[in-house]
Specification:
The chain is α+β, with helices and mostly antiparallel strands. The chain has two domains: 2-44; 58-152, TATA-Binding Protein (2-Layer Sandwich). It is built from two helices and eight strands, in the order αβββαβββββ. Strands 1, 2, 3, 4, 5, 6, 7 and 8 form an eight-stranded antiparallel sheet that branches. A hairpin with a 2-residue loop joins strand 2 and strand 3 (81-86). The longest helix is centred in the N-terminal third of the chain and has 24 residues, at 2-25. The protein is extended, with a radius of gyration of 29 Å.
Length: 154
C-alpha cells in the first residue's frame, strides 16, 4: 500500500511540473515575446472606436454644463449629471444655486425643497430641455459637502 502512495505522489509531482511548464512558457523551453508595434508609425496603434449616436459624455475635472463654485474638487461629469465636493457649507451651496439659477431665469419648485440634518435637495424649472434641474447636497462631516446636480423628469 505504501508503494502506491509513493507512486501516486511521484506522478502528482510530475504532472504538476508539466502543467507549470505549459502554463509558464508553453513547455517548449523557447522564450517567446509578443510582437509589439515599434511606435514609428501611427498606424501601428489601435484607434478609438467611432463615436456612437448616444453622445454619452463622461469626464473627470471641471467640465460640466452646470455652474459650480470655484473650489469644486473631485468633479465627475456623466451624461447630464455632475458630482463634486466643495468646502462651502450646505446653506452656502443652496444660496449659490438659488442665486445663479435665479439669474438664469430658472424658478425653484419650493414644494420639492427639502432640508434636513446634513442633507438638502431642491429642484429648478425652466431649462430649455424641459427637464428639471435637481440639486442635492450631503454634509460629509469633514468640512466639505458632496453636491450632485442632474437633469431629471420630475
Amino acid at each position: 500500500m505504501k508503494k502506491y502512495g509513493i507512486l501516486l505522489a511521484t506522478l502528482t509531482l510530475v504532472f504538476s511540473s508539466l502543467a507549470c511548464q505549459t502554463v509558464i512558457d508553453g513547455g517548449n523551453g523557447v522564450d517567446e515575446t509578443e510582437n509589439l508595434p515599434s511606435g514609428d508609425n501611427a498606424d501601428d496603434f489601435p484607434t478609438a472606436p467611432p463615436e456612437s449616436s448616444n453622445n454619452f459624455y463622461f469626464s473627470f475635472g471641471g467640465d460640466s454644463e452646470f455652474p459650480m463654485p470655484d473650489d469644486a474638487k473631485n468633479v465627475v461629469s456623466v451624461a447630464g449629471t455632475v458630482n463634486y465636493q466643495t468646502n462651502l457649507d450646505l446653506d452656502e451651496v443652496m444660496d449659490f444655486y438659488r442665486d445663479i439659477f435665479g439669474k438664469q431665469g430658472y424658478s425653484e419648485r419650493e414644494l420639492l425643497t427639502t432640508v434636513t440634518d446634513g442633507v438638502f435637495s431642491f429642484v429648478f424649472d425652466g431649462h430649455e430641455s424641459g427637464q428639471a434641474i435637481v440639486v442635492q447636497g450631503v454634509d460629509l462631516g469633514d468640512g466639505s459637502v458632496n453636491v450632485n446636480i442632474s437633469f431629471q423628469d420630475v
